Amino acid sequence: MADCIFCMIAKKEIPSNIVYEDDRIICFHDLEPQAPVHVLIIPKKHIASLDEVEEDDEELLGYLMTKVKKIAEDLELENGYRLVNNCGEDGMQTVKHLHFHLLGKRKLTWPPG
Ligand code: AMP
Ligand code: ZN
C-alpha cells in the first residue's frame, strides 16, 4: 500500500536492519528499542491491524507465528521473550500495518502501561 512505511520496508524502498526474511514475512530491528532486543515481525502483505484480519489471512498469520520461535532462537532469547501487538487507538498502535513486537534480553514487567 502506498504511503505505508512498513510496506516500504518490505519492498526495500526504505532501509531497515533486517533479522529474518522470506517470501511472506520480514523481521527488522525497531528504530526505538524498548529492550536490549526489540524487533518487529510483519507480514509482507498489507493488513492494517489485527482488527482488519480476514479469514483468508489464517494461513499467513499461522505461518508468522510458527517463525517466532526461530527468530527468537537466532536472537539468542533462550531465557524468554514477549510478543506484543498494539491494536487501534486504545492499543496505542502508531503504524497501521500489522506488526508484532518481539522483546527480550531483560526482565519485562507486567502489566504493561
Ligand atoms: P506501534 O506503536 O505498535 O504501532 O509500533 C510501531 C513501532 O514501529 C514503534 O516501536 C516504532 O519505533 C517503530 N518504527 C517506526 N518506524 C520505523 C522504521 N522506519 N523502522 C523501524 N521501526 C520503526
Ligand atoms: Zn503496509
Mean pLDDT: 97
CATH class: Alpha Beta
Number of helices: 2
- Topology pattern, helix = H, strand = E: HEEEHEE
Distance N terminus to C terminus? 31 Å
- Rg calc: 14 Å
Lateral strand order in the biggest sheet: 1-2-3-5-4
Low-confidence stretches are none
Assigned CATH architecture: 2-Layer Sandwich
CATH topology annotation: HIT family, subunit A
User: Could you say which structural class the secondary elements and strand pairing correspond to?
Assistant: alpha+beta
Give a description of the structure.
- It is a single chain.
- With 113 residues, this protein is of the alpha+beta class.
- The chain has two helices and five strands, in the order αβββαββ.
- The protein has a single domain (5-104), classed as HIT-like (HIT family, subunit A), CATH 3.30.428.
- A five-stranded antiparallel beta sheet has the order 1-2-3-5-4, covered by helices on one side.
- The termini are far apart.
- Bound molecules: adenosine monophosphate and zinc ion.
- Zinc ion is lined by residues 1, 4, 6-7, 46, 97.
What topology does this entry show?
Elements (H helix, E strand, L loop, with lengths): L4 H6 L7 E4 L3 E5 L7 E7 L14 H17 L6 E4 L15 E5 L9
Antiparallel strand pairs: 1-2, 2-3, 3-5, 4-5
The structure holds adenosine monophosphate and zinc ion.
Task: Note the main attributes of this structure.
binds zinc ion, HIT family, subunit A, alpha+beta, binds adenosine monophosphate, 5 strands, 22% strand, 20% helix, 113 residues
